[in-house]
Write a structure and sequence with these properties.
Chains A, B: Residues 1-82 form the GST N-terminal domain. Chains A, B: Its EC number is 5.2.1.2. Chains A, B: Belongs to the GST superfamily. Zeta family. Chains A, B: Keywords: Isomerase. Chains A, B: This is Maleylacetoacetate isomerase. The structure is a homodimer of 212-residue chains. In chain A, 54% of the residues lie in helices and 8% in strands. Chain A is built from 10 helices and 4 strands. With 212 residues, chain A is α+β, with helices and mostly antiparallel strands. Chain A has a 4-stranded mixed β-sheet with strand order 2-1-3-4, with helices on one face. Chain A has helices at 12-23, 43-46, 67-77, 87-101, 110-120, 124-146, 162-177, 185-195, 198-201, 205-211, and strands at 4-7, 29-32, 56-59, 62-65. In chain A, helix 1 packs antiparallel against helix 7 and helix 5 crosses helix 6 (124-146). The mean pLDDT of chain A is 94. The first copy, chain A, has 2 domains: 4-80, Glutaredoxin, CATH 3.40.30.10; 87-200, Glutathione S-transferase Yfyf (Class Pi), Chain A, domain 2 (Up-down Bundle). The longest helix of chain A has 23 residues, at 124-146.
Chain lengths: 212, 212
């Protein structure tokens, strides 16, 4: 059975899984779950993920959810190295990944941002400031962490890992919301190296949206 | 060298790591980083974790940060089973863990809650409502996920895993903020089973604070 990814072009958790599937060279079909139309809250999708989040991935006879759990699963079952072999190095890659996946992404979830607007009675400017604030804060922390002496083409060494898979979609969001990250030079360099890889380029929201 | 945990009694990420160290039967020393006194933003702590978060753990000649990265590291280097062996089961445990660690905890971080108060111009009631809303929402999702046919004494089978290590500190927070979770019967049952284990009981904030 060909794996099926239930995703939304602009969702950064979906974007992560698209990159991972591409890096793993796994052929997959895509079913779009349109968040703007509320399709994620319809029964068809809730049966895949009771939380209503995208992505969900049908693979190996199961439906998996949570992008990082999917990436760890692929790392354990496919010939990829989304995490290095040594435990201390794996810890470094997970720490970098979590700075984005735990400390930026959930706070900037669209439903949380909408809640901020509702609670403040504010308009779009409130949302934009919220996004810019937390994206900037988190990516600055990420850059600091990168700077702990382990150089390389990517976040950890010379091959992409889970950290790069988390970073690139977050940078798409940074650009979308206009977060000020021009000074984060190491991140910028890594992003350029990722963009040169077809696995990353093919997963880009604009490519997916144009193809959709 | 005896490992050193830099923690704060009420921090739920610290609480997670205390449980994990206890379950792994690792002897460790504790240095308190008092968040109320701002000690996490002093150079001594920033040198351990540039993000200023607790916990940090000195172990095996390195300083590790991010509670879930620490738990995965212990699972990889010590004779514990914070994750089951089979990849699909590991994915289930990670998914449950992330529902708490990614979708409740960061949104209810004290600095985010303080920001909500500042942006709304609201008082303590605003903070309490924020906490109750997101804790309830996340734990209800967790309960739904638990209900997918895999019973047992704990979240996954009859031994505690990373999911239980994430759940128990979140329940402490649920009680602290008065979140309405009385109907989540499976969670309640698991929490009672965890509380009977000394590894969980000894990590409880009240025990740590009293000993401190």
């Amino acid at each position: 059975m060909t794996p099926v990814l239930y995703d939304y072009w602009r969702s950064s958790a979906s974007y992560r899984v698209r990159i991972a599937l591409n890096l793993a060279e796994i052929e997959y079909d895509t079913t779009s779950v349109d968040l703007l139309k509320g399709e994620h809250l319809e029964n068809a999708h809730l049966s895949r993920n009771p939380q209503g989040f995208v992505p969900a991935l049908d693979i190996d006879g199961q439906t998996l959810t949570q992008s990082l759990a999917i990436i760890e699963y692929l790392n354990e079952t496919r010939p990829v190295t989304f995490l290095p072999d040594a435990a201390l190095e794996r810890s470094r890659v997970r720490t970098l990944s979590y700075i984005i996946a735990m400390e930026i992404h959930p706070i900037c979830n669209s439903s949380v941002a909408a809640d901020i607007m509702a609670r403040t009675g504010g308009d779009e400017a409130v949302r934009v400031d919220w996004m810019k604030t937390y994206i900037r804060k988190g990516l600055a922390a990420f850059e600091k962490r990168l700077g702990d002496g382990q150089g390389g083409t990517f976040c950890h060494g010379d091959a992409p890992t889970m950290a790069d898979i988390c970073l690139v979609p977050q940078l798409y969001n940074a650009e979308r919301w206009g977060a000020d990250i021009a000074d984060l030079s190491r991140i910028k360099e890594i992003a350029e190296n990722c963009a040169r890889l077809e696995a990353f380029a093919a997963a880009h929201p604009d490519r997916v949206n144009a193809a959709g």
